[in-house]
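Methods: holo model generation. Sequences were used as deposited, without trimming of termini or removal of tags, and paired with ligand SMILES retrieved from the corresponding compound records. Each pair was processed once, and we did not select among multiple samples. The sequence and flavin-adenine dinucleotide SMILES for this entry were:
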Amino acid sequence: MRTAQQYKESLRRMRPNIYKFGELITDVTTHPATKRTVEGHAQIFEASLDPKYQDILTTTSPLTNTRVSRYLSIIQSPQDMIANLQMKRLMFNLTGTCTGGRCAGFNALNAMWAATYDIDHAKKTDYHQRLRAWLKDAQTQDITLSGALTDAKGDRSKSPSQQADPDLSLHIVKESEKGIVVRGAKVMICGVAAANELFIMPGSGYKELDKAYAVSFAIPRDIDGLTVIEARHPSDTRELEDGFDNPVTIGGITQAYLLFDDVFVPRDRVFLCGEYDFTTQAVMNFIAPYRAAIGGCVAGQGDVMVGAAALMARANGLSEKVFREKLTQMVMNNETTFGMGVAAGVLGSAHPSGVWIPSQLISNINKVHVATLPYETKRLAQEIAGGIAETGCLPSCKDLDDPKYGDLLKKYLAANCSGETRAKIARLIEWLTIGSGVPGCMHGGGSPDGAKLVINASTDFEHLMDLAKRLADIKENIRVEQKK
Ligand SMILES: Cc1cc2nc3c(=O)[nH]c(=O)nc-3n(C[C@H](O)[C@H](O)[C@H](O)COP(=O)(O)OP(=O)(O)OC[C@H]3O[C@@H](n4cnc5c(N)ncnc54)[C@H](O)[C@@H]3O)c2cc1C
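and the model returned the structure below.
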């Protein structure tokens, strides 16, 4: 497995194709807009080689018979799902934020592992063999893999082929024996600047008219024809400040747009090419592990929020007992999403390809909790911390270190500890609650309303009514006329 240094060197060797504020980023490992997300992802490599974390972050691959990154593994059992949740919680504990340049890729490759197996059985294709060969190579090279469920989607009430502009969803524009050419875009993908490769799969179930949109493949991030635009962030200016209150141990997360301008993908990297009738299943295969494991992510960040809020209480001269109820609520929120994720994993089932698929019902309920509870945890952290942790309320590090008035600022920031320490805690809480530390709780992994559709479809209301009827001794058949 690679060291953090080898990982960063691999990024430096890539063709620069990432822009921000109109500027081409020539080295993602040092540019202020991307170095934090790279540092956060580099911590995965460091921790993977640490015996303390090895069982969580690595596993033995049946393809290589060696230990590989769990982010490049096939989830084969409930234990693997639990380790997946623990891994995500651990990485939030270590970096304070999302190392999202890995998890969507990890889930996409698992989703397509099962989908390609099913397609090959039904249509005598060889997608699964291609995916196996690609994955073996990816594990051997120990790459960082981002994932994109493609969009941009356009008018949400229309399918890809019904859009006025056919490019509004990523699609195949040319096909030959050697491979395919694709055009379109992906908006909002995590951590691309930290990735070596991207795994692309459909973002929705498609019908026959949308055949050209049923496509999945893996490509190097710097492939010809692909341009990446980093999104701006409200906390950009603070992120760009280096200083004692902004150590690089705190990772960084970036979101980017991918512009595919007739990108050629060689055939051995194509895992779906027109089989629209398997797209719904592929997306469902993605949703289940992703929406279960995201409970580990937000719990991991919540852990840091509990710690930082309690620290600020002490820094202000107050025992954390003053805030016992709030802190307890924060812990309950964390364990709710983590516990739901574990339950979804345990109550899953094995797909014939060997992939373990968590319970759709519980994973999707977890997605709704993930889109709700962390916001309360953030509110409580801010409430405990006081105004100093809200945005715009802490002078910049440059001012805190200014020879003319820096000492005065620190003097008046001091409470039950030095002003410098209080500034560090405030900065961390600001980061966790309103800064770039905020993971995609609401829409990452799909919208909560989308999850509610799955919850509704997975629930047998007739059965639940039968339970009630039996207990109330009702024999009468009660029906309502379906309205148009
Ligand atoms: C921080 C962050 C990180 C992300 N990282 C990744 C990543 O790494 N990889 C990746 O693939 N994606 C990523 N995404 C994208 C994410 O998957 C999408 O944001 C998500 O699927 C929701 O899609 P949308 O943003 O286009 O919202 P929309 O689809 O526009 O939804 C907006 C609202 O409209 C509702 N809605 C949409 N369509 C309909 C309809 N037809 N009928 C009724 N209601 C509808 C939705 O339920 C939602 O409430 C990320 C998003 C965020 C915010």
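The chain has two domains: 4-281, 295-462.
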